[in-house]
Amino acid sequence: MSEKLRALIADDERLLREQLKTRLATAWPDLEIVGEARDGQEALQKADELRPDVVFLDIRMPGLTGLEAASEIVTLPSWNGEVVFVTAYDEYAVKAFEQGAIDYLLKPVEAERLEQTAQRVKARLQARRAQPVNAPPSQADELALDALLQKLMKANQGLAGASAASEPPMRWIQCTTGSTTRLIDVKDVLFFRSDEKYTRVQTRDQEAFIRTPIRELMPRLDGNQFWQIHRSTIVNLGFIAAVTRDDTGRQRVQIQGHPEVLEVSRTFAHLFRAS
Q1: Contact, 255 vs 243, CB < 8 A?
Q2: All structural domains of the chain with their residue ranges
């Protein structure tokens, strides 16, 4: 490819970002590093702003993980690039990656492996850009990407929740409403929604707040009753009234007796696909 390619590196450890930059300078000298990110949310923002050709994403980062960030990056209107995951956790990643179209690097990154990745990524970018201008991605490519991200998300959550798996599902939640602390029966919760500091616990009659993030909360809930549908949202299946699709193809969950509509992210869209 004659045009110089541009890259974004996302890793919460500065030294590892510097190490990858140094090794890329040798293995892929014509690649321009246009930005760095310290977490998944920053990676998503910079991917949208800088429009890099390649994003190197550490899988495990605080806040928005690399997997969650990737599922959002690939849906950006400006996106026409490649994602390369960087991971130290080969026990769950390698098999999934070897069956998919997304590349990966194991920490510590080895020069030979990095050169192979560079050649594969350049070849895929060249093939994609040989297609007609504004040609939409094929449905097969999108489904393959969805399947791979789902497999990785499930494996990652499995490791994170391994210690909680042997415990019975949570029965009661201790919440704060104003200056009052109360117990809420989990079966009465319509959904959970998180921001950067708190998770909202919504029932038919009230909303309350806890400090437990979604990623820690999900393994403690009954998976037959609750599904995670977004990085910030868990819904009680018993209270779903309908699942609709908007003009952009995004799925929306309507809740019985509650006006709020919940978005289903690309990562979890397969949950509501007809078999």
Answers
A1: no
A2: 6-160, 167-272
